[in-house]
Amino acid sequence: MDLGFNATDLIASDQAADMLNWAQFRANGAHGETLIRAWTPDLPGVSYSVVEIVTDDMPFLVDSVTAELTREGRAIHLVAHPLFAVTRDESHQVTFIHDLDVNEIKKGGTAESWMRIHIERDFISDDLSAVVAGLARVLTDVRKAVNDWPAMRTKAIEVSSDLRSKPPVGIDQGDLDEAIALLDWLTQDSFTFVGYREYDLVEVDGRDALHPVHGTGLGVLRTNDEQDLLASVAVLPPASRARAREKSLLVLSKANSRSTVHRPAHLDYIGVKKFDALGNVVGEQRFLGIFAARAYSDSVSDIPVVRAKCLQVEANLDYVSGSHSAKDLEEFLDTYPRDELFQIDSVQLAEVARSVLHLKERRQTKLYIRYDSYERFVSALVYFPRDRYTTAIRLRLEAILKDSFGGIHVDYTARVTESVLARMHYVIHVPRGAEILRPDLVELEARLAHASRSWMDEYHSLSLESNNSDLVPVYAEAFPESYKEDFDASIGVADALIIEKLEPGELALDLYAPVVSDSRELRFKVMRVGPAMPLTKILPILERLGVEVLDEHPYEIRRKDRASAWILDFGLVLPKGEIYGADTLFARFESAFEAAWRGQIASDSFNSLVTQAGLTWQDAQLIRAYARYMRQIGSTFGQGYIEMVILENAEISRLLIEFFRVRFDPVFGGDRESESHTAREQFDASLVLVPSLDHDRILRLFWTLIEATMRTNYFADAHTIAFKMVPTMITDIPLPRPAHEVWVHSPRVEGVHLRFGAVARGGIRWSDRREDFRTEILGLVKAQEVKNAVIVPVGAKGGFFAKNLPDPAIDREAWLAEGIGAYQDFIRALLSVTDNIVDSIVVPPIDVVQHDPDDPYLVVAADKGTASFSDIANAISIEENYWLGDAFASGGTAGYDHKAMAIAARGAWESVKRHFFEMDLNTQREEFTVVGIGDMSGDVFGNGMLLSDQIRLVAAFDHRHIFIDPTPNATSSFGERVRLAALPRSSWADYNKELISAGGGVSSRSAKTVALTQQIKESLDFDTDSDTCTPDQLINAILKAPVQLLWNGGIGTYVKASTETNIDVGDKANDSIRVDGGELRVQVVGEGGNLGLTQLGRVEAARSGVRLNTDAIDNSAGVDTSDHEVNLKVLFSPLVARGVLTPEARDNLLHSMTDSVSDLVLADNINQNVVLSNARAGAIRLMSVHQRMMRHLERRDLLNRALEYLPDDLDIDTRRAAGEGLSSPELAVLLAYAKIEVTKDLNAVALGSANWCDQIVMGYFPVEIQDKYREEILTHPLRAEIANTVMANTLINIGGITFVFRAVEETGANTIEVVKAAFAAMEVFGIRDLWHWINTLPEEVPVRARTALHLEVRRLLDRSARWFLQNRGAGIDVEAEISAFAASVEQYAGGVPQALQGQDSERFERLAQRFIDAGAPRELADRAASGLDLFSLLDITELARSLDADVQSVIGLYFALSERFDVDRLLVRITALPRGDRWTALARQALRSDLYSVIAELTGRVYLATEGKVAAERITLWEQQRTEGVARTRTTLDEILQVEEINLATLSVGLRVLRNLVAQAT
User: Catalytic site residue 107?
Assistant: First the structure.
């Protein structure tokens, strides 16, 4: 192809080049002259389709093409239509594109239009075939019209000429002249000819019809197809038949079809009738086209036919020329719809003119109707007051007219001038062939008048009718036009009345069904006085209510002299599926929306239950609460999935709610058990139809949770829902499973409270872990359960997450206030499902159905985030009249100030002292080095660092600073720490830098780097060549420093095991500084803070040589103090209530006992360290016992070794082989569980209520009140629990971790009998006094000596308790046993050492001297050394009583026989037997018991068989009577005692020969 110009001028892109290539070939033929193609570019982000056209240039191309695309509903983005001068060869290929204007085309060239149009893309379908076909049809019409335009114009001239030369017979000359003039006028560019055809008027089946004359068609009516011509035969309808025969020359009308050429208006129809010689109509010459602009702009006096009609109207009305009326008529005619002037006859036009001119400026509505002669449309002129003209009025009138005449579409024009009246011209088109409806025009006019009435006129009228005229001025200009268009004035009055009743911020809601709508389409109106309501808040609420929002219309109601109001009207579509509870849907929907708007419920898809399951928003809240709990207990399903399951199973969701109501609705009148069973059957049957296993699991879990719920405040009108549940009923819930759990849920707060028993206590934590705070609380309550082993309540822990907290960085006060509000809601929810005690009677909460026993004991305490919240909790308790009053939460204003008491630090310091004491270091007299976590303003750290002036604090850190004093001076640094502790809100930055040794200093943790001096490197043994490091690296080095003590007083976990990952620890903030237990180089760790080390980290450290317990042991003083506070307040509450004590007096009394409470608490810390110290000493020896004990606890479901990180059997075997026992942290855990088991068993039978426990209960309380308030103490509401806790702790502390377990295992007795036997033994032998005596020995007495003393006392307890169990069996009467033996033991104990003989005496003397040499006073040494001998006083006293003998005389004989037959040596051999398994232990115990029994029996036999005061003489006399048997016995025993590796069999033989000797004595 040759281009007559630079191609780049044309081809600006690849697309242009492609079009140029495509346009190369154009075929001839009727439908081949135009090229059209359309496609959608396959490019990302393209939102349009492309249409390309190549055709000969001709008029009307762009107008016609764009009109067709608009008709197709395609928005046009771009139209490019350059014209090219193109030369094509005979094969129609482009040979040359000229660089010429199209008007300068050379011979052989053609002007072509190349069009490129971008149209809106159809994203549903890319099929553009309909677009291409439509454009092809239109362009064909354009070509026809353009090509035949000269012929059609010529035809019009010919018709005009024929009329002149051959005028039809019978036609008025005036009409003839006007017709000729009109045809001439049309040819003078007044008409766009589109089509022409000639028709003959013929009869078809006896009816008139117009038959097209073959070959006459031009333009769009041109066709050579005979079938098309036959199809064009038009049988005239009755209404047109008469008009066809009328002897009128012209037919002026509008066609049914719209023009495809130029503009898409209805085609103007100009018919010129044909007449025969007789003047009969025989046909028609028809012109189709569109009037040009001059037809509408020229004066009516210049347009043929129209001017004649106007003259006839003027003549008809006969107004005086030049008069106002004549001028008005002239204006009327000139402005009358021009199309109408062509079509209307002069008579009707005159009538309309007369009527309109008669209206003048009157405000009224008038209708004028003209029916099309051919029944194709109706022309309607409507006049109405101009000020009422709005789009809404126009559409309203249009709708009325369309409906009245049966129209299918309406065209309109409007004329609004300065006149008081506006004019609307409507053309109502009816379906082709349909008969136009004939409504009552008077009634129709009235309807139009009403519809066009002013909205405010209507509003004014209705306001007066409803006696609300005072609102008219307020709302005169309040409603926007958009509101008026959308709502009747009657609705406006109603809305105004509603608005007037609204308080600022209050909502008015209205869900309603539109008059005409699908059954699922509704509208929803929201009204509020005040600022605009944000759609960003409203739309999500609506969507989560399960509806689709179709549209939204906002209206601001601007009231006069009053605040504006807003009305939002939404179009909604209900979800598909069955509509449950349709009769209550509107009320439920409105209520749910308001609840979500007010924040009473969360806005999530559970709210769709309102529309999809027929439930209320309260029901949705219930389901949501359980769903949120699922997430907290570790459900793998996300909330979105759970929401989907609930909504897809609406019927089952309804069953869940019904089951819940059956269980908990207080007004339920049926049989709950029976109805629950029925509900379960329905539920199971419904689940069968659920195809998804995951859906099944989720729905079953919902059911399980409802079954596991024992109480709820749901029906008590609670804004915060609480479920009290039994976790053991819930499968797959994380371990451990508490006995009780309360789950709290609301849009503001969520929380849990976990309790391991009926009487439990623990702090409430403000958690920052939204999705798994229960996991956090579960970990804490596990530790709390262990920690609480020392106090009356078992472990409990609560935690809440505040869901609506503002940013504390912006407004900390608002943040704290919201946190407190969430805490208050949480506390109230807990109390709402807790029983109360009124006048000693348990009173359940109102409207709460119980499925569990009475449960009135609930106490809380401070914890992380809630340290100052105790007063808040107590205020709620008092407000709710809860029986505990301000004992509900310890640590409040009227309680003990733990920080002022330094009690937590002092308790932990007892552990530190004990560890160092075992290393022969006295922390109060000898200097030692320390690194720590915390600062001096903190409770535990600050108070702890003031407990010894011998501390040399090398380094410490908190979340703000790092403090390092490489070579501290103990004295000066202690004084500075005292100063900092007294300084409010101090930090390490306040430390006097002059007192820090060389090379040290204080660094900020926010610094990028910290300088490392040589002194720092040396003091921390920091192996690095760098002179700087990051703050985290420095802290890591501090934790691994080779000092003597690591003192933790901070928050966080800093030590883990090497086998653990940081993820396992769950404290991301400290990941970068954390160390492994095996990396610690300190000698001792003091855990003043919680969770400073993981349990595995502790064990690893302990097995690496570090001395430490657990946080539960070290920092138990805080909970112990709180427990005493609570129980003291409970004690005094009745006295305050009766007026015996004023609140102030009670508070003063509490304060006065601070030191006594401290002493009681610290005694517990000391005793726990003593028992652990003793346990560590015997850990290897007792490994098999510990193993059996752990198995026993597991069988009782009291212990989960894996959860507590205790070794499994395989690990135990490995340790046993390596000569290792349990580590100190592991022993600490086992100690707690030993106490937990005993306390649990004692509480089960309320053993502490027994009279013999009186002194035990008294000893729990400070000595200051024991006498004055003895009666109140002994009748304390928790008397039994207090006594049981004290007994469990006392017994385990003295008897050892395994004492009760071994006693139960070896004797077959239960825990209760073991405890009774043990306390009888302790009272008889004064064991508690002995224990206290040992514990208070001078500091010079070393630990080894103390442990040995403890062991002797423990052996006495061990054997004497077993004696009672074996000799008294079940039902031990403690008081009776004490009465029977205590006096005897007290009287004769001192003489026992003197009664010992031979080797027994020597053994006593050796042991006593060892104790004395270690620092024990002689009396204690003797008492301890003779412990096992004293035990024999039980047999001796019992024997003396049976013999009616003097105890003293029996004592001498007993010990003489013991020496004679080597009983002591045999007992030593029995004790030396390996403990092994249970059966070995039982065998040892049986041998020992039998041996004691034999010697007692032998003593009795000798006593009865002889007389005299000297024991040796009586024995000699007795033996002489049994020489052979005694000799045989002595020989056997001597042989046995000479065996080096004595075993069970050997000892059994020895015992047997002794028994034989006893038998011979009878």
Answer: no
In angstroms, what CA-CA distances link 1374 with 53, 701, 854? 114, 50, 31
Half-sphere exposure of 700 (CA within 13 A, CB side): 15
Q: Which 3 state secondary structure label does DSSP give 209?
A: strand
381 CB-contact burial (10 Å; exposed 0-12 / middle 13-18 / buried 19+): buried
Please name the helix (run of DSSP H) or strand (run of DSSP E) that holds residue 1538, with its range, or none. Answer: helix 1523-1538
Beta strand pairing status for 1028-1029 and 521-529?
unpaired
Per-residue pLDDT reduced to its tens digit, 1495-1554: 888 888 888 888 877 888 888 888 787 787 777 777 877 777 777 677 777 777 777 877
What is residue 618's predicted lDDT score, i.e. its pLDDT?
Answer: 94
Residue identified by tokens 């508490």 is: 738
Question: What span, in angstroms and rounded, lies between the C-alpha atoms of 901 and 294?
Answer: 106
Cα dist. 2→57, 100, 301, 331, 664 in Å? 21, 14, 57, 62, 93
Q: What is the pLDDT of residues 575-615, one digit of tens each?
A: 988 888 888 999 999 999 999 999 899 989 999 999 999 99
Dihedral sign, Cα of residue 974, residue 978, residue 981, residue 984: negative
409-415/421-429 β-pairing: antiparallel
How far CA 122 is from CA of 64, 283, 1461, in Å, comes to 21, 48, 113
Structure tokens of 753?
């409270």
Please give, one letter per residue, the 3-state secondary structure of 170-192.
CCCHHHHHHHHHHHHHHHHHHEE
User: In this structure, which amino acid lies at residue 1017?
Assistant: K
- What is the rounded CA–CA span in Å between residue 580 and residue 403? 36
Token pair for 1463: 């009983």
Q: How far is CA 1375 from CA 363, 699, 1319, in A?
A: 113, 57, 10
Which of 797, 1129, 1235, 1316 is catalytic? The answer is 797
DSSP notation for 1005-1036: TTSS-EE--HHHHHHHT---S-SEE-HHHHHH
Q: Specify the 3-state DSSP secondary structure of 411.
A: strand
Residue whose entry in the numeric block shows the structure tokens 């023009």: 259
Residues with Cβ within 8 Å of 340's Cβ and at least 6 positions away in sequence, in order, are 370, 379, 381, 425
Q: Which residue has the tokens 């807790």?
A: 834
Beta-bridge partners for 208: 203
Q: How far is residue 980's CA from residue 989's CA, in Å, rounded to a whole number?
A: 10
E strand or H helix at 627, and its extent?
helix 617-632
Structure tokens at 438: 């004939």
Mean pLDDT of 41-66: 87
- Element (DSSP H or E) covering residue 1126: helix 1117-1137
Contact 1116, 1231 (CB under 8 A): no
Sign of CA dihedral 1424, 1429, 1433, 1438: positive
Output the pTM of the full model: 0.70
Helix (H, G, I), strand (E, B) or coil at 1500: helix
Band of the pLDDT at 6, cuts 50, 70, 90? very low
Instruction: Kindly write down the DSSP assignment for every residue of 1162-1178, as one continuous string.
Output: HHHHHHHHHHHHHHHHT
| pLDDT tens digits along 162-209 | 999 999 988 989 889 999 999 999 999 999 999 999 999 988 887 888
CA 1142 and chain centroid, separation: 46
**CA 1255/CA 1323 separation, integer angstroms:** 11
Q: Where are the beta strands (DSSP E) in 205-249?
A: 207-212, 218-219, 234-235
CA dist., res. 524 & res. 222, Å (int): 57
Tell me the backbone φ, ψ of residue 1109, rounded to 5 degrees.
Answer: -110, -120
Residue 1068, token pair as written in the block: 């991301």
Please tell me the number of Cα atoms within 13 Å of 1112 on its side-chain side. 31
Using left for φ > 0, alpha for ψ between -120 and 50, and beta otherwise, residue 280 falls in beta
Residue whose C-alpha is closest to residue 736's, from 791, 697, 794: 794
Strands 2-3 and 94-98: parallel
Three-state DSSP class for residue 722: strand
Structure-token pair, residue 988: 């390490």
